[in-house]
Amino acid sequence: MTTAPAADQQRLLDVQALDTRLDQLAHRRRTLPELARLTELDAQLADVSTALVTSRTAAQDLRRELVKAESDVEQVRQRAARNTERLNSGQGSAKDLQGLQHELESLARRQADLEEVELEVMERLEAHEGTLAEVTKAHEELTAEVDKVAAQRDAAYAELDAEVAVVTTARAGAVQGVDEGLLALYTRLRGQLGGVGAAALRGTRCEGCRLDLNPADLDAIRSASPDTVVRCEECGRILVRLPQS
To answer: Is-contact 180 42, C-beta < 8 A?
Structure first.
């Protein structure tokens, strides 16, 4: 198209300002600091979660090992108690009693060995449970931090969405009644030129590319009909002439 009402062209600057604000809000939504922080926290939480599973598994294995060690010690104690009772009763031949005495000595050595194993497992479990407690605490703290930052992100989203709704409503009002052909051209150029499809001519400068137009182009623009849609020779955007231009 080559023409559109001058008033519509000037209203295009309002539309551009609102579109620019919407773009800014969309950029802020994509680049909220909370998003980067959540990415960092999620990576940390994944590592700590893996460590927590590993630590819990190791603790469970040690607890089972301790139960077995305690069971082994208890079995030896019970057998020694039975043999001691038989020996103290004096029942049986001298040979049998002598055999019981030897077995009690053997059981005592066996019990000592098993109790040493039991103590070693208990010490390992105690040390590991300390580590598990630290990892659990770290996991809880990271989870709480994730929840906190996620809430901050959601609050920021809500604030941005509320402003987007206001600006979108204002834009709908700004485009109402504007020449459809002019809007179509503006929309196409906006998509091609980094979100800015129309810019004001202030003095000798295009506010879109921030370059001064040469005298010949300025003369052609100023001599054109107010309804003629002119384009910046440097950047190609719709150049909106203001009264002072």
So the answer is: no
